[in-house]
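Hi all, posting the design record for the shared folder.

TITLE: backbone redesign
STEP: 1 of 1
STRUCTURE INPUT:
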């Protein structure tokens, strides 16, 4: 008698004993095996159509990259492309349109000695009112920007930008209290073209009266051990002018006179450190600066300047004192041991040609 599932006639000759089930008894048709099958049987409803095949071929399974793998491959490709681009175009190459390297600054600092005793007063307003600076404006208001006009190769906006950078340099280098006292130089340094930074740093690291490395050619600063501001309302008057020198360069010329009210610094005992200075009085100190700036398009974009000429007259000073690193003002009641050649008026147009001059009588307050 046949076993369960055997045909009535028994097992066919040559067939496996126990029927076909024994051959596939070890095969497990789990869910993953079914999903992976390339052929899929139609449902009964689908097979009702005439001539419908019993099975259909399933679409191939999608075996693409996962989202994380795709993002990783994309990042690697971007990094590789960036590396190639930076290798072809060096990041420190000069951009198109920039001018030639900046010239070194040429500077002249001329001390002006008083003809007699430096006049002083306890009231700084009275000092200013009795001097040629009576009508000067206060601070940055004395450095107005002129009307900007386009040039052949620069727009109105670019000319205005050049004038504004020049004004910014003048304000920082002659009006900032922390610069005047010698505490800071960075507010001025950050405005310079990078080609001039080495010269600037050498000037302050190793000052020299060589026409190239005098700190007082870059900015105004006093010997803070001798003098201090008696009034922070510094009087200023001057002009700014812009012109195109070539298709890639703008030039700004600045001519300004600064008048400071100074007094002697007290030592630890309350006495004035400067011998001969009147203890309760302030005096005026005048600085005439003629500066020449140059700008290429890169300077205008980065808000920086090339300072190429600095011509400074300052007094009252003693010609015996070295004015290279700091200015050593003569204060109220003091006199110079020696004078210079012909009298020089820092309020008048035209410059002195001597290495030391003397203040004209009319340039001092009438006390």
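Okay, here is what came back for every position:
SEQUENCE:
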């Amino acid at each position: 008698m046949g076993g369960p599932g055997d045909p009535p006639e028994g097992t066919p000759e040559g067939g496996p004993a126990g029927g076909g089930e024994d051959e596939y008894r070890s095969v497990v048709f789990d869910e993953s095996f079914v999903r992976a099958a390339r052929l899929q049987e139609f449902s009964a409803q689908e097979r009702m159509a005439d001539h419908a095949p019993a099975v259909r071929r399933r679409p191939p399974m999608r075996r693409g990259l996962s989202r994380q793998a795709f993002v990783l491959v994309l990042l690697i490709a971007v990094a590789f492309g960036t590396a190639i681009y930076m290798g072809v175009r060096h990041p420190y190459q000069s951009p198109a349109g920039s001018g030639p390297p900046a010239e070194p600054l040429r500077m002249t600092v001329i001390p002006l000695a008083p003809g007699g005793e430096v006049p002083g007063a306890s009231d700084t307003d009275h000092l200013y009112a009795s001097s040629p600076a009576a009508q000067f404006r206060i601070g940055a208001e004395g450095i107005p920007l002129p009307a900007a006009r386009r040039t052949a190769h620069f727009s109105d906006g670019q000319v205005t930008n050049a004038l504004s950078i020049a004004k910014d340099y003048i304000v920082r280098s002659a009006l900032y209290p922390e610069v005047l006292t010698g505490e800071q130089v960075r507010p001025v340094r950050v405005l310079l073209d990078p080609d001039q930074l080495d010269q600037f740093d050498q000037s302050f690291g190793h000052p020299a009266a060589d026409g190239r490395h005098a700190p007082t050619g870059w900015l105004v600063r006093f010997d803070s051990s001798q003098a201090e501001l008696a009034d922070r309302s510094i009087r200023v008057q001057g002009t700014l002018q812009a012109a195109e020198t070539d298709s890639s360069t703008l030039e700004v010329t600045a001519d300004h006179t600064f008048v400071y009210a100074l007094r002697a610094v007290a030592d630890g005992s309350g006495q004035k450190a400067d011998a001969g200075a009147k203890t309760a009085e302030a005096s005026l100190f005048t600085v005439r600066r003629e500066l020449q700036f140059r700008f290429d398009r890169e300077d205008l974009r980065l808000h920086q300047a090339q300072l190429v000429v600095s011509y400074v007259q300052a007094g009252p000073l003693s010609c015996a004192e070295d004015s290279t690193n700091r200015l050593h003002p003569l204060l109220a009641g003091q006199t110079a041991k020696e004078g210079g050649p012909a009298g020089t008026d820092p309020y008048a147009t035209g410059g002195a040609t001597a290495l030391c001059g003397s203040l004209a009588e009319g340039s001092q307050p009438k006390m």
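COMMENT: The chain has ten helices and ten strands.
Let me know if anyone wants the other runs.
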